[in-house]
Design a protein that fits this description.
Helix content: over 70%
Largest sheet: none
Number of helices: 5
Distance between the termini: 22 Å
Radius of gyration: 16 Å
Structural class: mainly alpha
Strand content: under 5%
Shape: elongated
Order of helices and strands: HHHHH
Number of strands: 0
């Protein structure tokens, strides 16, 4: 049996929360890009291939946004990588470099915030981008407190 202190458990919980936020945002933005509607994330794991396909279709219909397209696809890749890192961390009994994982989650959250800020007509940008930046800072504060 593994013994985890309350501070470590809090850090693990926030790491999981950050990954889930990235999953949710990837899914919500993909739905908006594909259908022009906003939906609440249903909590299922993000289907990153579907998110990427929606982004490609969205940007194909909007020439002149190559930089944003590239940045958005990179943000999706970062979210997918941290999702895989979470799975590996949990499969390994929550053993590993949690500080590095929190730093990686922070970077992915900031990357998504930068994309959200630049998405034309995205209806929740004023709320979502600052929230992601706050969550990114919190990830770093947990890392630095360790």
């Amino acid at each position: 049996m593994i013994s985890i202190g309350s501070d470590e458990l809090r850090r693990i919980q926030y790491f999981i929360f950050a990954v889930q936020r990235l999953n949710g945002m990837a899914d919500v933005i993909a739905t908006w890009m594909a259908h022009g509607t906003m939906t609440a994330w249903d909590g299922t794991p993000a289907r990153f291939a579907d998110c990427e396909a929606a982004a490609i279709g969205y940007f194909d219909a909007r020439p002149g946004q190559e930089g944003l397209r590239r940045d958005h696809l990179a943000a999706l890749q970062a979210a997918q990588q941290i999702d895989q890192a979470l799975a590996a961390f949990l499969a390994g009994g929550a053993q590993g470099d949690l500080d590095a994982l929190l730093e990686q989650a922070s970077a992915a959250l900031n990357q998504f915030a930068c994309v959200i800020d630049r998405l034309p007509d995205y209806p929740c940008a004023e709320m979502d981008a600052p929230a992601f930046r706050t969550e990114a800072r919190h990830c770093l504060s947990l890392r630095q407190a360790a």
